[in-house]
Design goal:
The chain is mostly beta strands and 460 residues long. It has seven helices and 31 strands. Strand 2, helix 2 and strand 3 form a beta-alpha-beta unit. The chain starts with 7 loop residues before the first helix and ends with a helix. The structure holds calcium ion (CA). The site of calcium ion has 8 residues, from strand 14.
Amino acid sequence: MFKTVACLDICCLLAFLPVRTQVHSGVQKADVKETAFCVATNGSDQNPGTMANPFATLEKAKAAVQERVKISRQPIRVLLREGTYYLSRPLEFSQEDSGSAGAPVTYTAQPGERITISGGIPLPCDWKPYRDGIWMAAVPAVKQGKLDFDQVFVNGSRQILARYPDYDMSDPGKSGYVNAAGGIPESLRSPVAGPNDDMTFSSGAPRGVRFDPAAFTIKSWAKPGEAVIHIYQADYWGNLQWKIRTVNETQKAIWFGDSGWQIGAKWYDNPAELDESSRFFIENVFEELDAPGEWYLDRKEGVLYYKPAAGDDLKKALVEVPVLEQLVRFTGTQDRPVHHIRLEGFRFAHTRSTFLKPRLEQIDSNCFTSDLGNFVARVHFRREQDAQNTDGKKAEKYSLEEWRKLGFDRNSVFADPMFVDPINNDYRVKPESPALKLGFKNFEMGSWGLTDEFPAQWRN
Ligand SMILES: [Ca+2]
């Protein structure tokens, strides 16, 4: 581990010049030289990357590191100064960006400064009053199909996609849900043509959910097909999401459309169950934009609507929207691995959600040990034609050897982790554990759990 906090400023001031710093490696100490680059939001990529004349982008710093590692055996440190770094594409590290055991590459925050690596963009908004405390801003790029976003951050806080019921930030985990009136029975016919054309249902998989009109919205929705339902399985086993196909007032039923891949749902042979204990809310409904903090994007017209809290000055607000799904990628291969790169002290923010992305054509739904202690990978096929390609089976099981021949889990180890005393909740592993050989490090029991960022009532 490095212990160079005190000399970071010096390192940056003397970028490119070798400086002496102490490296502690176990009990041994040795003098090594270190190269440093500096990045700041008010810098320039035309600069040399010093503390006084920093780069502006991580991409530029990464390029400088890449040149440096070709000729240097010194540790390299890239120091970021306070601010938000909006990425235009994910930072991608390959073997060319790698350090070595004696000369690692470290991207780090200036101590005491808040650095955000953002997958979003600041969105300039010319707000105009709409009605009922709601404001509107034209976003031409959305109308032109050049921009789309599924979250909105105002002054650094994620806002609420217009929903029913409203979410109360002071009562997280409990507010903002209604209970379903049960699943849709198989005897109920879908009111829309071809309700199952995008999926193969297993028997008993949820097609939708019933609602109690006394507990449901009284508003009618112009575009129910845009809405997304978030619903718990029975007994709160997990939560699930679907696009809504339609809401049928007569049937008192919300019919589900497509969804992303989610465990226990649809084509799975042990599908999710919904019942009266299933809590849900529905979001992305313009008519439900009625509470402070809620927003809605009209993609057809390219207009963002938002209802700020009373007293908030939208004219001065920073609005940010995510555009990237990923911020950092390590693209090594077995022959050309990525190694000895550290990213530390950063806050990663503003990535697009992926929960409704299309399912893969085939899914590894589970890897588990059977009663006999063998490794089994179970693969479920999404569609019948995929299954037909594999001897007509709907699900396939593979041994570890077979699984590896397919290219998966080649470097995984299937073995007893050798916990110290799991019955008494001591999940440290013994010195002879194979997990340690993979790089796992024990930590003290009791030092894990919810962090300070979780609401207080969840931590107590
Ligand atoms: Ca609402």
